[in-house]
Design a protein that fits this description.
kinase, about 170 residues, alpha+beta, ATP-binding, metal-binding, binds magnesium ion, four-stranded antiparallel β-sheet, globular, binds guanosine-5'-diphosphate, Alpha-Beta Plaits, disordered N terminus, single chain
Length: about 170
């Protein structure tokens, strides 16, 4: 359900953003991070890694039986057209899950609005540059999967009062 806007618990809302291998290959990492920074989100965890088939199937557990899953796995994990690495970013802020999905845009880049990351940087669903958790529950599950607790840093953001007031 929806909490009251600006309630304290919103400040704890976190989401998992990943720059997919095509985004790393195309040197879009800086621009994508910049969009979240300029929106006012707070970076609390960041790492680069090669995703294993096992981690990916846990991450996309709801998609494992889809016909496109083998293609998705190849895209996200390895192969000559793909990067072997990903950037992972955990952002924290007011309504961050919803806001980041809006910033990322439609799953199919051809339907994504201009101004969104996918709408600006991609044109194919198999190369859509970025991942964003689609719900609070999904975000919590994904963050636990990708990050150890000690890898997420609690730090005071001087403008936090601005970002949590409505
Ligand atoms: P997202 O949350 O917007 O990333 O979309 P989903 O969670 O539904 O799917 C995860 C990823 O799988 C998408 O970002 C796409 O890269 C890929 N994907 C989803 N649907 C399709 C499809 O119909 N065909 C192909 N080739 N890839 C898909
Ligand atoms: Mg998804």
């Amino acid at each position: 359900g929806h909490r009251a806007a600006g309630s304290k618990s919103d400040v704890r809302e976190r989401t998992l953003i990943a720059v997919k291998p095509d985004g790393v290959q195309r040197r879009l990492v800086g621009q994508i991070i910049q969009r979240f920074e300029q929106r006012g989100f707070k970076l609390v965890g960041l790492k680069m890694l090669q995703v294993s088939d096992d981690l990916l199937s846990q991450h996309y557990c709801e998609l494992r039986t889809k016909p496109f899953y083998p293609r998705l796995q190849e895209y996200m994990t390895s192969g000559p057209l793909l990067s072997c690495v990903e950037y992972l970013i955990v952002w924290e802020g007011h309504k961050v899950v919803q806001a980041s999905r809006t910033m990322v845009g439609h799953t199919n880049p051809l339907e994504a609005q201009a101004g969104t990351i996918r709408g600006d940087f991609s044109f194919h669903i198999s190369r859509n540059v970025v991942h964003a958790s689609d719900s609070l529950e999904g975000a919590q599950r994904e963050i636990q999967l990708w990050f150890q607790k000690k890898e997420l840093l609690n730090w005071d953001c001087f403008d936090q009062t601005l970002t949590c007031e409505v």
